[in-house]
Amino acid sequence: MSRLFATREGDDGLPGPERRLAVMALICGTTMAVVDATMINLALPSIAAGLEVASSSAVWVTNIFQVVCAAFLLVFSALSEIIGRRRLYVAGLSLFVVAAAGSALSRDLDMLLGFRALQGMGAAATLSIGPSLYRSIFPSRLLGSALGLSSLVVATGYTAGPAIGGLVLSVADWPWLFALPVPIGVVAVVLAWRALPREAGRRGGFDWPGACGAMLMLGALFLALDGVGHRTPAWQTLGWLALSLVVGGGFLWRQHRAPFPLLPLTLFRQPRFSLAVASQGLAFVGQGLAFVALSFLYQQGMGFSPLETAFLFTPWPLMIMLAGPLAGRLADRLNPSLIACLGLVVLIAGMLALGGLGTQAGILDCLWRTALCGLGFGLFQPPNNRELMTSVPAERSANASGVMSTTRTVGQAMGVAMVGACLSAGAPVQWALWGGAAAGALALLTSLARVSRAEDAMRARRRGASESVQ
Predict the structure, then answer these.
(1) Model-level pTM?
(2) Membrane-spanning regions, if any (predicted)?
């Protein structure tokens, strides 16, 4: 860990001591958001009972957060170029903290949903530019290791969230779940304002028509996918999907012609970037699908309790915690695309193994299969993120970060929708897991297509480093 904060002559990024404080700010912000999301999912029955509303209505406590967050990711990544990433990150964290306090004080569902929407906006502001801040904070030689650290933080949050939520609910009512992140958030705001890199925003206008189009396009798409996952009427789901496609066409038309496009389409002319984005989206389809499918399989198919199901999920984030930092370090020295491909092979093997689970399988049968998936995902994600972020110029880091966050969110939602479609058709839930393996296979083919390009980029980077030394 200490090597992440050691400074060498000629390093870009922040000096070692400043780097440490900046990373602490990002860790606090990420932990707060991830733990909050996992705790609230666990608390939905308690919220429904406490506010005396139907369970179907309480689900919107989660849904509205996700829809608003997804809708604003591209918008905030573009806005950060004008006002600066430090200002946007601090503003997003502050909004999240204030809205969390408001959620804790809410006494009816409408008030709670309003504050959850504001929390979604705050989360979008931080998530949209988080990866690009790692690129500004760390020297290029350590970027893979830094992104491995980011994966470790996220996995830790996913592991700890349900346990913390269950502990809080065992001694207190649900509003305390929203109040819990507030002190951490205040610390994160202070650290972020003090330590994150200061930068001047660019001059020029903001693409307001593109921003409105992006919000409507992504919001409608997410509602369509959510409709598939929750079996809403077909006409409603198709209506949201049609709206998303129509607005998406207009959005692309606008981006080709806007003087300052919200999403510069020139990013996708770089094959390494486009292929990394596609690989990421497909991999997150598999992860989002597996988390929902396994909940049904373990509880309805195999008879495990919710607590036992939470335990059976634990190996996935634990293996990411172990494999992610290692994969990040390797990606700084070896071809990151090759490491990502290895991770996808392991992920596919794990998904196929989970798809082969019978209803009489034991706990150990479930644990090693889930651990295999976590190992594969942990080996895949940091190298792929490194490829995605370093394949574009530094001045486009915020845009690349916004695309990364949007792809991850949409991929997970598509995975959930696939499970919903499978269940609606009356098919065994294992079929959905095999679909996740197929998504992983497509991700592997996509990732293999960029191996040689990544190798060329590594050679060019080494030549540049040796020339600067000479």
Answers:
(1) 0.81
(2) 21-44, 56-76, 88-105, 117-134, 146-168, 174-196, 208-228, 234-253, 273-298, 310-331, 338-358, 431-452
